[in-house]
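Q: How would the structure tokens look for this protein?
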Amino acid sequence: MTPTTEFTPLTQIDIDQRVYDLYDEYCHGRIDRREYLKRASALAALGIPALAMASSLLPQYAKAQTISFTDTRIKANYVTYPSPGGNGETMKGYLVQPAGNGPFPAVLVMHENRGLNPYIEDVARRAAVAGFLALAPDGLAPLGGYPGNDDDGRAMQAKLDQAKLRTDMLNGAKWLKAHKLSSGKLGVTGFCWGGGTSNFLATEMGADLQASVPYYGAAADTANVKNIKAALLIHYAENDQRINEMWPAYEVALKAANVRHEAHFYPGTQHGFHNNSTPRFNEAAAKLSWDRTIEFFKKHLG
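A: Here is the predicted structure in token form.
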């Protein structure tokens, strides 16, 4: 009998850095899917199975669920809230509360540059399991919401007025802080675009925000750092030049403004290392960073 060959998914260490760099271009909207796969195919001439590598990096959201939406430790539902000055009159979000009557410290969870996908919803559930009232807004709500795939979601988010999109997140933070189940203590976290927006909200909310935890996000405008009153926990990937080159100036501004902050660079990681739906995921770094995040929120939100 001929033995059966079992397919083994590619892991982070199997993937060439040049393919990661291409994926970074693609996932940030600088090239489209066709160009991404075309350039990956061209690397095959160098003896690199780049097309298979490139395909493996596309999200597989069935793998991203760590907390079921039916988990008895939480209660989740979709909500709408007013968003004056945003891209629409109202916004939609995914609200997850821990079991019990509250009040609970609150955490806003902000998506990447493609809307509220299943990975971000799972992160909100993870926060709720840890004891926080979590809201994950869908910035694409004014266009009908996350479309079910990242390619269309990325294109939709790029069409939105970006300043108004940040206002939509700000309105979500304010709505969550005032929620009847909220203790009034508020933290924010986000990934990629959401990480940059976590930094932005820290400058906008002043003393109304107690803690901000950006993951590999663009630094805040250094001129506005003086407005930050929240404590910051900043997570960076080691291999993420575009984001990391912003850190030195940001660090100088944070120190000059006496902002409480700590930054961690995770060795051997790529931008997106927390996202467990692609091989960019680094399990050890994702766990360590999330443990630090929860500990940080518990310290500053109570």
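The two ends are 62 Å apart (CA to CA).

Confidence is low (pLDDT under 50) at residues 1-14.

Upvote if useful.
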